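Lab notebook: predicted structure, single chain.

Context: the supervisor wants predicted structures on file for every construct in the current expression panel, including those that have not yet been purified. This is the next one on the list. No modifications to the sequence; it matches the entry in the shared construct table.
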Amino acid sequence: MKFKNILSISKDSIKKEKDYPILELKTVMKKDLLNSGENDRYSDSSEKLVISLTSEINELENLILKVTKVFNETQEVTSDSLNLNIYINRRMEIYPPTPRTEYIE
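Prediction complete. Output recorded below exactly as produced.
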């Protein structure tokens, strides 16, 4: 998978060829979705574009809603059929196993 086909989004930033504030989501995502391989800095097509979301679990729903809203708005202004491919990254907390205790009589 080429890096240009990945759009990484977190709660407050977007990573593409450089970092963008989350307020630029509509602009950056629209360029990726509608690029069709014209500009080498953006995705080859919406079919190849993977939107990678990184968020804490309690913020994930809001981030997904933002992305789907921008996707739907972009879909409305084009006659092409677009794909939305979302990959969810989440930091997983791994806790050590509880120690075994032995009972002595």
